[in-house]
Amino acid sequence: MSFGRHIEIRGVVQGVGFRPWVHNLARTAGLSGSVSNDSAGVVIDVFAAAESDLDAFVARLRVDLPPAARIERLSWAAIAAMPRPRSFDIVESSRAGARRPSIPPDLATCDACAREIADPRDRRHRYAFTSCTHCGPRFTIALDVPYDRATTTMAPFPMCAECLREYEDPSDRRFHAQPNACPRCGPSVRLVDARGRPIAGDEGDAIAQSAALLARGAIVAIKGLGGWHLACDATAEESVRELRRRKQRDEKPLAVMVRDLATVERLAELGEAERRLLQSPAHPIVIVPCREGPSRIVAAVAPGSKRLGLMLPYTPLHHVLVGDVGRPLVMTSGNSSDEPIACDDHDAFERLAPIADAFLTHDRVIASRADDSVAFVTLGKPVVVRRSRGYVPGRIGLARRLERPTLACGAHLKNTFCLGAGDSAYLGPHIGDLDNLAAYEGYERAIERMERFLRVRPEVIAHDMHPDYLSTRYALDRCAREGGAARVAVQHHHAHAVSALVEHGLEGPVIAVTFDGTGLGTDGTSWGGEILVADVATFERVASLRGLRLAGGDRAIKHVWRTALALLDDAFDGDPPLDRLALFDGVPQTEIAVVRRMIAAEVNAPLASGAGRYFDAFGAFGLGRPRASFEGQVAMAWEQIADAAETRPYAFAVDTAQPVWRIDLRPTVRAAVGELVSGRSASSVAARFHETLTAATADVVRMIVRVRGAMPVVLTGGCFQNVRLTEGLARSLGDSLAVYIHGQVPPGDGGISLGQIAIADATLRNPFPHGGVPCASAFPAK
After folding, report:
1. Last residue in a domain, options 68, 90, 112
2. In angstroms, rounded to a whole number, what is the distance separating the alpha carbons of residues 591 and 556?
3. How many domains would you assign to the chain?
4. How far, in Å, CA of 537 to CA of 755, rounded?
5. Can you point out the beta strands (E) in 255-388?
6. Which residue from 144, 195, 332 is spatially nearest to 254, judged by alpha carbons?
7. I need a labelling partner for 221 at 20 to 30 A (CA). Which of 63, 281, 678, 755 fits?
């Protein structure tokens, strides 16, 4: 007779070598039974001669996990006495039951596989699809769950005898590695022209020939894990400029892939947190400060920037290619400006033909689009600002279970959606700006795929309050088309605040400093410089930046001189010294007069309180830059030019006589202009602006605490990608208050869908909460 336990494990436990690890653990301990995948995780039935042996086994399950595995929940129940099995086996996966996608994100090439592809004696030498249970594609090749080879795009590639032996050997590193393959049986690469005609012969020649083309200045389109890249030599000014011209990407920084960490160290200033982030299983693009002095990376890669977006090779193909070229490569998304990254081959050849000189492709299908993720480090911790490859579809645990399955549609810019059921939420991959049909269609397909993985049919659909966002229109159209789901409109900045609460498991209330560009407020104006007191169910707008008129609406976001003019006229009562500011030297007087009339008459000049607009306006007149070629460009430049040694704030005011307190930076504007026209450096003025906004915000937070009592503070919204602002506020408030910043959930619009999920659930539980302003409005589907 024996003792037995049925163990259920939930988390990232499929596709990461978990079952073979359990198998070897059990056999080493002399136990019998079985382990299998199910649709929610891993199930173990284990038997032993003594209860103490089972106790020890359960304890060991939490120790020394496979590198990419993560246990979120482990539960067990005793099995009734029965004859003990003779062996411990890995059995076929079960497809029954409620699903949760324990498919892990794509994993960067592990050290063992990297050594194999670099070893001329190894059968996988230079093989572009080398992987094992600890690395390789996962989410981007998955067609369904459970995660087995038959439900991936590796299904068309039957394993050869040697690969099958590895796959079936519990002691092998490739035991049940679903993407396992070798040059004999797996996918292969080829180099072709825009019409699909071969340029090189076998796989080795294809990569070597691609490297030779890149070294000669060519632009090569490369099929990666979750989409296509456009690559060129990052040390060749002419090549980078030509890529920008063809891609129609004037000044926005380009990502660079380098061979190894030692190369990164020569290019950038790194701390230990940056090193860990660069080498993490996600291998994101990491935004790092450049080293001073000459650099191999040409200025055209990141014009005017003191930072670079660098990443290490994360697939075998990248390792071989970057090694062959022997120099850093621009590795930017395979698209034209404002389009989604190309994913399938036909789309890539059609859209990238005018850009690329050659195409390095392969015959493994990409099932799910996933751009490279982007992150940076502040306060010694990583902050993900674009969450996609390497992070999706990682589960985010919810402190409060959702009453009904919910889809949150996200924002219009930097969109991600979120799907939630029970105690789990899943942010979808980065979609980007929903500005065109291709992006919108990709958004629809990504939602359909995630719903299929989860077997979830949303009963609640949450969306932003703005009626013109395409994500809102998706929600309206879907509810009208399908019916049966409740529809919840959520205020943009409350969603930002709650995304931070959910990430950190906070109940609230909190003081939420919510700084971004624009978002529709409950009063019909554009918000974005808000200090809220919020919990998941309610929020109160306690304070805000003084509103500015945006002449021409969204046109002012690119033509930042318009926002600067509104700010200056407001601060100087209509008589600023424009003739002494370089910003207006190139702006026709007739245009200035027209914009002033629009502002005065409040015609096509909506009021906006966005902190991002203040960064634009100050940066415009401080730097003399009338136009931004991409969103946030002037604000980024204004941050980077700020003098680190300057810590004095300017004067400011806080008007507490109104129901919503107003942070008034008109004194700041007057002082800053006075310093600029008297010859003070822009770097000093930029630093003092940052110090002023930090000091004003911290003062208002302390005023709220004096009235309401101490509460945690969350810093959220796209402006908290600004390191100086984030660190300044965290340090100013951190002595007396608990301050939380984002980490795994983007602080910008890429994270608000998580907040929408929780708010929609709270709204439907209690549509008319007491003690606060309703956070959202709930509508039945029509």
Report:
1. 90
2. 13
3. 4
4. 11
5. 256-257, 285-289, 307-311, 329-333, 358-362, 374-378, 381-386
6. 332
7. 281
